[in-house]
Amino acid sequence: MIRKKKFTFGIIGCGNIGNAIVEGLIKHASISPEQICISEIDTSKVKALKKRYGVSILSNKDLVTNSKFIIIAVKPKDIPGLCTNISSFLDRNSIILSVAAGITIDSIRRMLGKNIPIIRFMPNLGIGYGKGLIGYCSKGVSKKILNDILKTFSKTGFCFSVKESEMFFITAVGGSGPGFLFYIAEIIYNLLRARGFSKQIATKVVSGLFEGTGVMLAKSKQKPSTLKEKVCSPGGTTLAGLSKMIEGNISRIINDTFGSAEKRAIELSKQK
Q1: What global pTM score does this model have?
Q2: Which one of 26, 79, 116, 186 has the fewest beta carbons within 10 angstroms of its own beta carbon?
Q3: What is the mean pLDDT of each successive set of 10 residues along the chain, which is 272 residues long?
Q4: Which regions of the chain carry the CATH code 1.10.3730.10?
Q5: CATH number of the structural domain 177-270
Q6: What does the alpha-carbon distance between residue 38 and residue 212 come to, in Å, rounded to a whole number?
């Protein structure tokens, strides 16, 4: 007889991405706080989440035993120790969702010592706002279970299937990409502040710039290059600025940026 699990989602690790998952599930995927339990070494983090959303705090053992889907959201370096800690509490109905950058499904299975169904997915922090990007792959997971998971998480962002060999690059683009864009936003924000604009206006200008550009890109269904040309006028200000970007070889810099992030994801996969 299969014992029914008390919680739908058990989340181990309540750092930035664990926080975003909780927020996305509750605010955008209609998952009630009563369906979520959490576990984290830092007690201040779990207490804050419990206070904000009313989710349950459990030990790793109780979380694994009582959760239908176990989301591993700890740092990659902590995966081996966590797998050793929870392995004996997993049963044949346990399903793991791992968001650990660079850690392959086979590596997790090896560390657990069990061929358990695993979905590996790479969400970014946008899921907390219902605007995330979630690349995923899986092994040993039934079509029904996978569809159930995608139905839920598609409410928190765009879900798309990738080969596991492509997850390193998706980690760089989808996972790390927001950090790179925030860096550009930081530069523009600081430029506005240096010109005397208030914090409020600088924030609204930068956020509006990114939001408006993103909406245009999503809704126009045109290529970025086409939209870029629409902004450019012969001999105008945009072309004057773009010439400096081209002169500085920003294309190479961006390629190197994502390449470096991808390389680090590959390195993480090789750590014992």
Answers
A1: 0.87
A2: 186
A3: 77 93 96 95 87 93 95 92 94 91 91 94 93 95 95 96 93 93 97 98 97 94 93 91 94 96 87 60
A4: 177-270
A5: 1.10.3730.10
A6: 36
